[in-house]
Design goal:
By secondary structure, the chain is α/β, with parallel strands linked by helices. It has a single domain, classed as Response regulator (Rossmann fold), CATH 3.40.50. It has four helices and four strands; from the N terminus they run ββαβαβαα. Strands 2-1-3-4 form a four-stranded parallel sheet, sandwiched between helices. Strand 3, helix 2 and strand 4 form a beta-alpha-beta unit. The radius of gyration is 19 Å and the shape is globular. The termini are far apart.
């Protein structure tokens, strides 16, 4: 498994074993960091002064392939499970897009028409 580059936006330290983590405690600092660097995952703590909706909107514009997750006190295993589930979902969505674009390819359409005749 590759090391995940993660930006954690939280007012307290969390256990993120196995990931390369950049920590910050405000959404404003996170946005500044995101202007300089991309991440595989942005993890934002809920129930604090972190404005996760604003941060999520910025992430989607600056780094559309970055996974944005919220957490509220889960342990490291639960967070890792969220990351794995989000990565799996992202892979499936990419495969769907590839299949759709492949069927829209004119050469493939001609092949499909030829095969059906």
């Amino acid at each position: 498994m590759n090391t995940i580059q993660m930006l954690v936006v939280s007012e307290r330290l969390i256990n993120t074993t196995g990931h390369e983590v950049t920590m910050t405690n405000t959404d404003e600092n996170a946005i500044e960091i995101l202007h300089r660097q991309g991440f595989d995952v942005v993890l934002a703590e809920e129930g604090t002064s972190v404005h996760s909706k604003k941060l999520e909107a910025v992430v989607s514009v600056l780094h559309p392939d970055t996974i944005f997750l919220k957490y509220e006190g889960e342990d490291a295993d639960a967070i890792n499970n969220k990351i794995i589930a989000a990565q799996d979902k992202q892979r499936l969505e990419r495969r769907s897009k590839i299949r759709i674009s492949d069927t829209l390819n004119p050469v493939n359409l001609i092949d499909q028409i030829s095969l059906s005749n």
